[in-house]
Write a structure and sequence with these properties.
The chain has about 550 residues and is an alpha/beta fold. It has four domains: about 75-170, no CATH class; about 235-295, no CATH class; about 305-385 and about 460-540, P-loop containing nucleotide triphosphate hydrolases (Rossmann fold); about 395-460. Helices cover about 40% and strands about 20% of the residues. The protein has a six-stranded mixed sheet with strand order 5-6-7-3-8-9, covered by helices on one side. β1 (about 1-10) and β2 (about 15-25) form a beta hairpin. α9 packs antiparallel against α10 (about 260-275). The longest helix is centred in the middle third of the chain and has 20 residues, at about 260-275. The radius of gyration is 26 Å and the shape is globular.
């Protein structure tokens, strides 16, 4: 389907890819993974012909059509929503435009009629006469209502554009579908629809995503970018992660016999295959587990942050009581009449269809906002640590190095010592000279890792986290996910990461303009529950 031959990419002295030779074959879905800066998005740009490699070639099988999820939200502003979707199949759309132009001629000739007829035959063979209805159905599938289909893209809000561009990429069943972070800015329902669509898609898909649940649901292979090469591994992300961890442990067991290691690997494959075969994610198309073998299991060179949330003390029974809490901004009711009592050990997923409501809720609970109605009281034995959605205010002094930056949040002389501070930074992979880099040069992911170092140092017994996975690579996401699962205190967490929400939360609280929906259940149970769904619809109507 797609062949990569002797691909090399170099920026100055930095080598991203070095003589890469690989193939992406028909009918498989490849999840591209790699550390931040490894070249995932660059690779997608190269295979979608938006960027030239330093050397080497990319060749798509003759007669096959490629479609790429657009990242530019303004390219199609002059077109209607429906036309934008149909433009996803460029050959078909170009014929449509040519036919429309011929028929629009005031001096329409016999020659024009012959040409239009020839184009019409091709158009029919391509399914063109059903194009508008097919595009409309696809739009409806991603939650775009019929009355929006003829609206100009320039009049569409950003989050709705994301779903329209998704429909564009999927339109016409391309032979090769390339998607870079397709779940960004999508709600849970649309992501679930996309997972189901791709899991049953018969063509080839190459996708970059930090959403582990999404990668598990759709991928037949994981394509790992490491040391300038790309290696394919059969299975989804969880299989790759767990098997690589197992292989790393075995590599460290020098005294263990090779035969025992082989048996352990075979048992791992057997258990994993049995579990996935029973899951909702198993489809007739995804037979990757039948092809799993020991050769696919290799240790990863990835470095995982050591995120460990300890507590100075255990909290008492009274954690947080909220009465009649309401927040209105410029006449918009973000939430009102919120009454909640948190219990010790609760791990709560905070939801709202309005992301502003969630951040405003955190701002109130952390005393960063005093303009609200109602009241709340933290238990006297609680201590709180907060990871906000926006962290720019924490890095205003860009000339500080990371050791001095973290020192600002130390409470004791012992905590201010450099060796102590370097310990926390080291856990977040800022070791050696890395700990002395200036705040001005930090990437988004590095800033979040600094904020996590700060949180760990507070040793709080209540953690509040607003979208903690933003900007993080898969390794950091996995590490913080594991840490919050093991944390013995109370957690309030908002996240768009399905796996995160499902594995951490034991209680769901949704903030709405008409009150609160509060249930002790898992994230998946919450969205599957019919009575909850009916209540949620009333709360937003």
């Amino acid at each position: 389907m797609l062949t990569v031959t002797n691909l090399s990419v170099q920026f100055g002295k930095r080598i991203l890819f070095d003589e890469v030779n690989t193939q992406f074959t028909h009918g498989n879905c490849y999840g591209i993974i790699g550390a931040n800066g490894s070249g995932k998005s660059t690779f997608l740009k190269i295979i979608s012909e938006k960027m030239d490699p330093t050397s080497g070639t990319i060749s798509l099988e003759k007669g096959k059509r490629m479609s790429v999820l657009s990242q530019d939200h303004f390219t199609f502003d002059a077109y209607t929503v429906l036309d934008t979707v149909m433009m996803g199949n460029k050959p078909l759309y170009d014929i449509k435009i040519e036919m429309d132009a011929l028929y629009a001629r005031p001096d329409f000739s016999e020659e024009d009629g012959i040409k239009a007829g020839e184009l019409g035959v091709i158009f029919e063979e391509m399914g063109g006469w059903n194009a508008e209805s097919d595009a409309g159905s696809l739009l409806s599938s991603v939650g775009i209502k019929n009355d929006t289909h003829y609206t100009l893209m320039k009049d569409i809000d950003g989050k709705t554009k994301v779903r329209i561009l998704l429909a564009q990429a999927l339109f016409g069943n391309p032979d090769l579908l390339i998607m870079d972070e397709p779940t960004n800015d999508l709600d849970y329902e649309t992501i679930a629809w996309l997972e189901h669509f791709l899991a049953n898609y018969k063509e080839t898909v190459i996708v970059v995503s930090h959403d582990r649940h999404f990668l598990d649901a759709v991928c037949t292979h994981i394509s790992d970018i490491d040391f300038g090469k790309i290696n394919h591994f059969s299975g989804n992300y969880t299989f790759w992660y767990e098997s690589s961890q197992l292989a790393a442990r075995q590599k460290a067991q020098q005294n263990k016999k090779a035969e025992d290691k082989k048996k352990e690997l075979e048992e791992f494959i057997r258990r994993f295959s049995a579990n996935v075969a029973k899951s909702k994610q198993a489809t007739s198309r995804k037979k990757m587990l039948e092809k799993l073998n020991i050769e696919d299991i290799k240790p990863s060179s990835r470095r995982y942050p050591a995120i460990i949330f300890d507590r100075d003390r255990e909290a008492g029974d009274q954690i947080l009581n909220i009465e009649g809490l309401s927040k209105i901004i410029e006449g918009e009711i973000l939430f009102q009449n919120i009454n909640i009592n948190l219990a010790k050990g609760d791990k709560i997923i905070i939801l709202s269809k309005n992301s502003r409501a969630v951040s405003a809720f955190y701002d109130i609970l952390t005393s960063n906002d005093t303009d609200f109605e109602g009241k709340f009281n933290w238990g006297v034995t609680t201590t709180q640590s907060y990871l906000p959605l926006e962290n720019a205010n924490f890095f205003k002094n860009g000339e500080l190095n990371l050791v001095d930056w973290l020192r600002q949040y130390a409470k004791t002389e012992e905590e201010r010592e450099e060796v102590h501070l370097r310990g926390f930074l080291g856990k977040m992979i800022f070791s050696g000279e890395e700990a002395l880099k200036k705040c001005t040069v930090l990437s988004g992911g590095e800033k979040v890792r600094c904020m996590l170092s700060r949180m760990m140092m507070t040793r709080a017994n209540v953690l509040l986290l607003d979208e903690p996975t933003n900007h993080l690579d898969l390794e950091s996401i996995q590490a913080i996910n594991n840490s919050l699962k093991n944390f013995k205190g109370t957690v309030l967490l908002s996240t768009h990461d399905h796996e995160f929400a499902q594995t951490v939360g034991n209680r769901i609280i949704e903030l709405t303009p008409k009150g609160v929906v509060d249930r002790y259940m898992t994230f998946e149970e919450y969205y599957a529950n019919t009575s909850v769904k009916e209540l949620r619809e009333k709360m937003y109507s």
